[in-house]
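Postdoc handover notes: sequence design on the structure in folder B. Input tokens:
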């Protein structure tokens, strides 16, 4: 295991020093320090500059992300020294506050203690802000995708309101200690009520969504070191909310209701009721976020931004990797250049990886 960590550390440090144009003698000295740390402890500690670079390149290497043009703008917050659940909770609140920025969302990552044989930090939430899901005799209420985690929160003592948009608590676990849950104060949560520029009845649906998608269930891997708690965010692409979260049958399933209110015949697929309702739902999301001054991008603009990212990577003589099935938007994919291109789905490190839920 130590040999594997050393090999990955060497590869990462070589790449970092090359891209940062650092002198050869500094590189050799740093490699010597890392080798000694790994020999003595079985792992090594990143400097802040290494951590900053590694987290940014992990975004650059994220094959499923269409928003990689902005990888260099990621704000990296180093919280590796924190060792209590209460301290970590405060750091998560600071992340939410900084990233939200009154709606002018800032790409941010907060990195906690690296995973070792003796120590680990886990955030049980899939995202720092997410809505609860309740299974009832009459079907699901809220976000169906959150039902399992909501049950775990209830086992820990949290009680939601049983509504469609109850924000879940943060659940933090250190080592093998029992997890602790913390309610997020309302003032930290920015939500956008959805309305439509043409259909005034849309407000009667009482739909809303939170402003910042902060992924907190993935692990960050840099040079052989794993950070099992490293929540990160960009801003939403509209279709994530309008074509998935609120539209999927297994989530909020709003398309039938919207189609009915639009007066579209749902008895035949040839009426394209799903397509027409989907477009108006996405129109509502983009319109509402922009009206409220909250950062969001439509899928056509995001595809153009990804095209620019590809050009920049080619100019830097770095091959672009990508997962085509994730890069194409779920709405009108054939209208983007991505649809018509093959991508190499090779996984490069540093990167973000899924990890098994701790519950």
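Designed sequence:
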């Amino acid at each position: 295991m130590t040999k594997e960590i050393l090999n990955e550390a060497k590869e990462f440090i070589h790449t970092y020093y090359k891209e940062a144009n650092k002198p050869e003698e500094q590189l050799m000295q740093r490699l010597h320090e890392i080798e000694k740390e790994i020999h003595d402890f079985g792992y090594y500690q990143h400097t802040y500059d290494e951590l900053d670079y590694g987290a940014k390149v992990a975004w650059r290497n994220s094959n499923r992300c269409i928003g990689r043009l902005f990888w260099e703008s990621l704000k990296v917050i180093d919280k590796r020294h924190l060792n209590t659940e209460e301290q970590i909770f405060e750091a998560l609140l600071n992340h939410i506050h900084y990233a939200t920025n009154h709606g002018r969302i800032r790409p941010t990552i907060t990195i906690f203690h690296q995973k070792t044989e003796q120590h680990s930090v886990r955030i049980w939430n899939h995202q720092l802000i997410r809505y609860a899901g309740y299974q009832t005799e009459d079907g699901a209420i809220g976000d169906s995708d959150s039902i399992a985690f909501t049950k775990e929160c209830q086992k820990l003592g949290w009680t939601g309101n049983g509504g469609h948009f109850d924000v879940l608590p943060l659940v933090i676990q250190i080592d093998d200690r029992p997890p602790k849950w913390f309610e997020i104060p309302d003032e930290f949560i920015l939500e956008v009520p959805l309305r439509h520029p043409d259909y005034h009845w849309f407000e009667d649906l009482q739909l809303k969504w939170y402003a910042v998608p902060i992924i907190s269930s993935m692990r960050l891997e840099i040079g052989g070191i794993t950070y099992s708690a490293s929540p990160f965010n960009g801003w939403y692409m509209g279709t994530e909310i309008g074509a998935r979260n609120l539209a999927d049958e297994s989530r909020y399933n709003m398309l039938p209701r919207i189609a009915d209110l639009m007066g579209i015949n749902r008895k035949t697929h040839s009426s394209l009721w799903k397509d027409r309702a989907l477009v108006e739902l996405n129109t509502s999301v983009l319109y509402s976020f922009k009206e409220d001054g909250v950062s969001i991008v439509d899928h056509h603009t995001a595809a153009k931004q990804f095209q620019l990212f590809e050009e920049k990577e080619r100019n830097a003589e770095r091959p672009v990797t990508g997962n085509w099935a994730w890069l194409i938007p779920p709405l009108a994919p054939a209208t983007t250049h991505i649809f018509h291109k093959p991508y190499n789905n090779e996984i490069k490190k540093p990167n973000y990886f899924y990890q098994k839920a701790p519950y």
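Context for whoever picks this up: The chain has a mean pLDDT of 98. Don't rerun without checking with the PI first.
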